[in-house]
């Protein structure tokens, strides 16, 4: 069995385990609700489920988070227990209590509302760069 076929089987099994029918229409809808980039097409997710292609890393991470599995397990299978141990939240010490509350509230929002908030922040950041006269945002 090749790696694409094995991935497709793990993806379908993970969808079933999470309570979803492993069909392209279901995968397309649920994935695009959670992914902030350009939406994936029905044909694109069908290729994942048929073992024709593999998702890019950022898409694999979204799939894994949605399905409640580790990204490396979804991509490589159960035998891939070598993990990169990156400390989570190392930046927590550098933010204020108010910023922490805002982040917690943001993370508690539904995905669609988080997308809107992210778009607003991006618009402010873009306006700030344009207002400073430098695209790099340096002042």
Automatic annotation (TrEMBL):
Domain HTH cro/C1-type: 40-74
Lineage of source species: Bacteria, Pseudomonadati, Pseudomonadota, Gammaproteobacteria, Oceanospirillales
Name recorded for this polypeptide: Transcriptional regulator
Coiled-coil annotated spans: none
Top-level taxon in the UniProt lineage: Bacteria
GO molecular function: DNA binding
Source organism (scientific name): Billgrantia kenyensis
């Amino acid at each position: 069995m090749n790696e694409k076929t094995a991935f497709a089987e793990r993806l379908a099994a993970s969808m079933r385990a999470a309570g979803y029918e492993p069909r392209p229409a279901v995968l397309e809808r649920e994935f695009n609700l959670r992914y902030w980039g350009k939406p994936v097409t029905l044909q694109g997710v069908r290729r994942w489920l048929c073992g024709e292609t593999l998702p890019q890393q950022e898409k694999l991470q979204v799939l894994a988070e949605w399905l409640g599995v580790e990204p490396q397990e979804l991509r490589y299978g159960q035998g891939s227990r070598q993990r990169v141990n990156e400390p989570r939240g190392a930046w927590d010490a550098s933010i204020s209590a108010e910023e922490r509350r805002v982040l917690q509230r943001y993370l508690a929002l539904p995905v669609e509302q988080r997308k809107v908030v992210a778009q607003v922040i991006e618009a402010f950041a873009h306006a700030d760069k344009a207002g400073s006269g430098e695209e790099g945002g340096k002042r």
